[in-house]
Specification:
The complex is a heterodimer of chains A (about 120) and B (about 110). Chain A is mostly beta strands and about 120 residues long. In chain A, about 0% of the residues lie in helices and about 50% in strands. The chains are: A mainly beta (about 120), B mainly beta (about 110).
Chain lengths: ~120, ~110
Amino acid sequence: GAVVSQHPSRVICKSGTSVKIECRSLDFQATTMFWYRQFPKQSLMLMATSNEGSKATYEQGVEKDKFLINHASLTLSTLTVTSAHPEDSSFYICSAPRRGGNEQFFGPGTRLTVL
Amino acid sequence: GQNIDQPTEMTATEGAIVQINCTYQTSGFNGLFWYQQHAGEAPTFLSYNVLDGLEEKGRFSSFLSRSKGYSYLLLKELQMKDSASYLCAVRSGFSGGYNKLIFGAGTRLAVHP
């Protein structure tokens, strides 16, 4: 199956700093990628849809100025959590659908801890 | 609105069969997915249903009834490694050229000897 990678896998940062998370499709091109957030023992909540070459589409309640998304190429989308606070501590997961397919391929996730 | 319900937790015995139910009410429907997720890991794809009926894949089967807004995942010959969360997700809505996935809260399955 297709492979999606994320980097870093874990990050610990101080409150007020910004953190960048990368999502890469390794063996296919992804014009669209999805970013999810998952709190402990809860399900995945869609944050935004990343579109190559255009602005991201954010879900209701997600601050676009806090969660900056850049989809600069057909294989890379980045999520930057700006001025992170402890409540932003979560598991962030990206996914990418392969064109013509039904399945979304998920990255391994990034565990963010804000102190 | 969008609503996907599944039981929070289930327990079962190794070698047994377990059925995890999922009911949904969404503004649109273009398929239902089941994913398995181990703690701290990303979800992995198990099954996809878009038409009514049963899809079988090895030890796992998934059923869909669109008129009832209902699906179940059936796991046979349970193994200890099947202990995980099982996520029901409906493809609904449209964003960026692809339908979005709306996830249920997940069912944590514990398999014991």
